[in-house]
Structure formats: C-alpha cells, structure tokens
Amino acid sequence: MTETTISKAFGELTDPRIKRNLRHPLVNIITISICAIICGCDDFCSIEEYGNSKSEWFGGFLDLKHGIPSHDTFSDVLNRLKPKEFSQAFTQWVSQLGNLKDDIVSIDGKCMRRTLDKVSGASAIHLVSAWSAKNNLCFGQIKVDEKSNEITAIPLLLDLLDIKDATITMDAMGCQFAIADKIVDLQADYVLALKGNQGEFHDDIKLFLETNLASNFEGLSHTVSKILNGDHGRIEQRNVWLIDDVQWLIERHPRWKSIKGIAIVDSTREVRGNKSHEQRLYITSHENKNADFIANAIRSHWFVENKLHWQLDVSFNEDQNRLRSGYAAENFSMMNKIALNLLKNEKSVKVGVKTKRLKAGWDENYMMKVLTVGFTSV
User: Fold this and answer.
1) Shortest CA distance to 153 belongs to which of 136, 135, 170, 132?
2) What is the CA angle 282-286-288, rounded to 5?
C-alpha cells in the first residue's frame, strides 16, 4: 500500500469493529470517504458509488483484496469511530504542518442545524473549532456536550492545542475569567469580545470607556488605530482605542487578574447614503501591544467564519447534513475539515475550493496531489 497524507495521519486509529469482521482495513474506509467528500459526496451511498467508480485507481495504492466496502460498512464504521481519538489525530497531524507561535487563533462554535432530531428529542450537534490565521488551517474540533454549551468545550479544545505565544480570539460566549486564566496558564494571550453577559464587569468597562472616549482619552495612557475602508458603495471608519489603565478594574473584579488592557472599537459605516454607528468592547491580556495589533486581532477573528464555517456551509453543504445516529455527523464534519485543509493547501492550481473539488473528481493525478500535499507553505 502506498502511503498518503491520510494513511500517515490516521492509519493508526482504533478500529471500532470486531476483529472477525475486518474484511476492509480501516485506512481504506477513511481514505475512500475523504476522497469522496473532496469530490462532493455527502452520504454513505454516494461514497460507495464513488469508490466503485474509482476502484481501479484506489487499487493502485490501497489493499482492495475484498473490493470497495458497502455503504452499510461505511455507515457502521463512521457511526462507531471514536471522535475524540479522531480529533486528537487530526490536531497532531495539523500541528506537524504548522505551529501557532505568534499566530492569531480564532475559536468559535458552529451548529449543524439539520442534525436536530425532534422525534428522539436529541438536539442539533454543536462543534467548537480553532482556526489559524497564519497557517490558513483548521487546527482542532470539539463537540459541545448536549446538556452544556461552548464554555465547557473551549477548555477541552485548548488542551488539544499547543498555543504557547499565540493570541486567542473569541466572541462573548468565551469571555469567562476561568477560560482567560487557562489561556494565560498555557503561556498564550487573549483578545476577547465583551458583552452584557458579564454583568457589572461589562458595565464598569462600558461606562469608563464611553466616558473617556468623549475626551479622546486625554490624560490616560493609550494607543489608537484608525482605519478607513471603502468598496462596493460602502465607506467605513473604524477607530480602536486601547487603554492599559486597568488596575482599578482588577481591584473591583479580582477574578479578572489576567487582564492587562481594555479596548473600544468605534465604527461608522455609510452605505448608499445610509449611516450607522456601532461600538464594541474587548479585553486583552497583552501588555506590550498597541492598538494596531489589537485591531488586527479583532479583524482576524472573523477568518473562522469566512474561511472555515462559510466554506463548510457553501462548499461542503454541511448545514444540510442529516446524519443523526452514533458519531456519524461529528466524524463527517471532521472529514470535511480534513478535506478543506488538504484543498486549501494544494497550490498547483489557482482556483477556489469549489473548483478544486470538481477538478479532483475529474483528474485522478490532481486527486493524488491533494492526498500527498506537502504543506511546505501556506
């Protein structure tokens, strides 16, 4: 059997089947599934049909002594394959391709809406993922417990990653003092969105920043970043002020001992003559960074939406996934991310992810390039 990126990274996963039933090696099932997903398949029957149509090609580098597995075999394995081990192997694989040092790592959740099962009362699957701005890769995925929320899943995802010297960005759901402390304990820093869910802590910062914004923070140690953008009939002026006078805040809220700066983003947008104004609050553990750095981190956070979640929904149609048994939906989402990482980092053709998927289905030589991509640059 010829080694590929998939076999190297996932060839040692624990097979969930009884040994006497092992007609098809696990690496075959995972490889064929990922290749099928790359080419547009989104259910087990289409994966089997894809495998049969490419059986001669797969036979060139896989052990197909018993042919292509049936759709029932694909379903059985991916329903029972342990997602925790799969997720750990995924993160170990991606960590060999790039590191997170001096990176901006965006952590955010996404709901697979069609996995909601009203008959059994099971809620839709909610996943929390980490996106690396520097590497242009998804670095990890954790499922949110059905009876919990992202707050409990985020620390588990952080434990998977080597985030030393990285900057972690999250929306208001992840703005919790325990999560902030964990990030700092792991020798990283954070930039967290702050909203009303933090009660008096939020109100104190909001009053302080809004009051001093009127005087442009005169008399306070601060830096400011001013950015003007305009395209497609839209003009946006975005100013970010970063203030490091936070000792008074720590004294009032000692649980937030890791905080080193507070920031306010003041945005004015004009679209076809209609003006809107918005202010957003952020906190950070950085003490030697300026407002330009914080502004960039805030903007970079949206990469997890634009480059990961949007791609999964638009290119991979993930929101329409209706798998509701076992671990199938969670494992399918992981394979979507493997496919996306492979496609984004295959650089021989300069086209989008959707066109790369089509080309991989048409051109077996190109598919092999995707499977053996070196990730030497991103």
Assistant:
1) 170
2) 125
The span from the CA of 80 to the CA of 57, in Å, is 27
Residue 128, CA distances (Å) to 153, 230, 306, 309, 376 in order: 7, 32, 15, 11, 27
Judge if pTM exceeds 0.85.
Answer: yes
CB 128 within 8 A of CB 108: yes
- SS3 at position 164: coil
Domain ranges of the chain: 5-92+337-371, 175-291
Distance CA 153, CA 183 (A): 14
Q: Read off the tokens for 47.
A: 């994966």
Indicate the pLDDT class of residue 350, thresholds 50, 70 and 90: very high
**pLDDT for the residue 273:** 77
Query: How many Å is the Cα radius of gyration of the chain?
Result: 23
**CB 333 within 8 Å of CB 318:** yes
Concatenated DSSP letters for 232-252? TTEEEEEEEEEE---HHHHHH
